Amino acid sequence: MYKGWKTTASLLVASTLLLSACSTETEETATPVDLKNSSSEVTLASDMSKNPEAAKKRNDTFIAGMSSPQGVFNPYFYHNGWDGNVTSVLFGSLVDVDKSGKYIPSLAEKWVLSDNQLTYTFTLKKGLKFSDGSPLTADDVAFTLTMLHDKTYDGETDVSQVQIKGGQDYKEGKATSISGIEVIDPLNIKITTEKVNALSLQILGGPVLSKAYYGKNYSPGNLDHLRTLHGAPVGAGPYKLEKYIPGQEVRTKANEHYFAGKPAIENFIYKVTTSDTNLQLFQTGETDYDGFTANPDNFEQLKSLGFANINVMTSSAYSYLDVNHKRHLKDKNVRQALMYGIDRKQIVDATFRGYGEVANEPISPISWAFTPDINPYDFNQQKAKELLDAAGWKAGADGIREKDGQKLKLTLLTRKGNDALITIAKQNLQDIGIVLEVEVMDFNAMLDKMEKGDYDLSSVSTPGMVDPAESAQNFLSTIADNGYNNPAIDQLILQGQSTLDIDKRKPIYQKLFKELNEDVPSIFLWYRKSMTAHNGRIQGLEPNAYTGIIGDLPKLKIQ
Amino acid sequence: MAIYVLRRVLNMIPILIGVSVIIFFVFAMTPGDFVDSNQKLTPERQAELRALYGLDKPVLERYFIWMGNVLQGDFGYSMQHQIPVTSLLNQYLWNSFMIAVATLFLTWTIALFIGVFSAVRQHSWFDALVTLGVFATMSFPSFFLGLLLIKFFAVDLHWLPVGGMISTGSQTTGWAYVWEVAKHMILPVIVLTVLGVGSLTRYFRTNMLDVIRQDFVRTARAKGLKEKVVVYKHALRNALLPAITLLAFELPGLFAGAIITEKIFNWPGVGQIHMQALEIRDYPVLMGLTMLLSMLTIVGNLLADIMYGVADPRVRIK
């Protein structure tokens, strides 16, 4: 299962490649980007005769660009989202995500949830095999989940969120196996959890590691052998690793044991590219697919190539200003005043030049949980001033608002490259009597300051998100470390997590997001768009926000 | 001489220890750590991971653990690549080295010739043109020059590849492989040479001009030696002496990687690894690479002194 990125360093670059939207082929020809119709646009190749020789000659190989794989090709150990992409190709998972972010069976034939929503029974497809030809059975699933509970497991998958029965005992060494994991027969496995959690399925239905291969020499507390295998993965994905050349390429070959049949394209290669020259590589036919910085110049250039199919998609993430609720901004009126008082539309237009839109709720418009029925907080400084007055912040002699002898000064933490946000927000806030002090720093330094509570606002983005619960839980008072605490919101969040039925969850989330829009726990900024292009000779590729190109990979063809 | 060298080598030990203390603490004091970079982790899991990585221990203790391992030849595991730091550096270091050596050779050869010629013909047309050219190339930003060359030679003319070290998916071996890598090296080496040759040319020219005015050159001329012998035997040799120091100082540069140029040409060099390690706070890699470069700097320094002594009897230490 595609699990989003693991490191934030790759976050910004990654967004161009991984985030996208449900692709509906709306137009045959290019149109200017239409902000009203936000989810996705496809521009098809207009003149395939312009396709460069280099690409035409390559009739059994698909080359996709990516930023920086690091060679940790194990879905539970990588620290870098690019390695995550590679593992998605090499490892099949029980459950996958479709283009609208809903769970669908993959290696699993089906899964059944007990009435109390605590017990999951997975049934595997018949005849599954790993890329080395060995059978994939329920034992392998059990091994994978057990390994995640090992006390020396230091990867970033947090299996404790699922609360499998007996998992903690195993971790602490009190038991030699996990009582909640029960292999019924080679095709069926039952997992008993102790808490209803909508996110559990993502973890339980994740990639499967071979017990025979990865579990060799395994004893609790000893993952040493497994760690030596990061460079020689064995999985059940559509492709298997042929060769990794550090800093250059990840070469894979079609897996003849893949459950849905061997993919038609024999070779799939991830080539390391950078945003400086990925357009040139694409233009000369050295790559077939890449993600590009979404802006009008790149779009025009790609269009003029003639052989490019261009996808412009809204990301599944959103950007916001994290709010420190322990200082001036604990007052809802002040937070709302910021929403009204900052011209977010102008910031978005200046930053993305048509390839972004204003966010007003903490969920992407491509999610099934998105609700359009909310306050858009259109730029209105008069309203902002009224809200500040109501909150008791009155303009002082120098025009700066004060209350109880304190001036209304806010500190904003941000990374480099947020020029529009800094300049426009500073000016806007000055106009309504607020001083904004900006500190520019690198990401880890920013997180450190946030942890210490030494800030008022901090400009961040979420990673790509599949389930609305991932976004919602950040506002839970037990998880939010910025001091946000709203019992009514807490209750809605827990309610949304406590069932897996989308029809039941939808109204809960719509209500939740409406209330969050009203309560403004953070200053919502924007959804950005990403732009990808692929060579027109690759047939059947419709990149989307949740699975990137990986969902389509097994069924691609080269014309 | 042997004792002098030995003393200098022993001297390196306290210097390296001092350097390691400074670097370790500076990195440790940089806000945020490796675990911070993943936003998706819960605070409990973050604490667990810090304990597993040993990041929860006091900085001083971490330093001694690290130092203890290094003394046993263990530079630790890269946190993000999950392989030993030495293997990681081995994967990338030599790629940077290849480019750097080719660049060094070209830069020095070109700079030497041009510098000497323009010194001998000071105030000539040639000299004026060289001076102009030198300042022009020095002021080029590397990314601009790189992108310009890519546009001309790769995109428009298709003579050379856009970037990378080999053609994607290439199966070549032996000489075909060497040729392929060489073709990919051409553009990055040109960029780095053009950028580096300017200042070095000025350096040789100035040295040469200094020497040419000295008394022993005049004596040589007075003896009736041919101008060629005066310039290339007497003057040039002396003018090259200070260059020895400069050359030895290039040693760490051979392994440091050229971050911007490597990035533009997708060259799998060590510069990228260094930057990434810094961003993600991959302490073992940061420490390993920085220590290697410090050591090379110190060794380069030592080599400079020794070579100077060999070349110039006047400064030889008894």
UniProtKB/TrEMBL annotation, chain A:
Principal subcellular localization: membrane
Subcellular localization(s) per the UniProt record: Cell membrane
Region (Disordered): 30-53
Polar residues biased stretches: 36-49
SUPFAM superfamilies named among the record's database cross-references: Periplasmic binding protein-like II
Entry superkingdom: Bacteria
Signal peptide residue numbers: 1-26
Entry-linked InterPro entries: Peptide/Ni-bd, SBP_5, SBP_5_CS, SBP_5_dom
Protein name: ABC transporter substrate-binding protein
Organism: Tumebacillus lacus
Automatic annotation (TrEMBL), chain B:
Location of the ABC transmembrane type-1 domain: 93-304
Compartments reported by the entry: Cell membrane
Keyword Coiled coil belongs to the record: no
SUPFAM superfamilies: MetI-like
Source superkingdom: Bacteria
Name of the protein this chain belongs to: ABC transporter permease
InterPro entries: BPD_transp_1_N, MetI-like, MetI-like_sf
Transmembrane residue ranges: 12-30, 92-117, 129-154, 185-204, 239-260, 285-308
UniProt membrane topology term: Multi-pass membrane protein
Keywords per UniProt: Cell membrane, Membrane, Transmembrane, Transmembrane helix, Transport
Family of the protein in this entry: Belongs to the binding-protein-dependent transport system permease family.
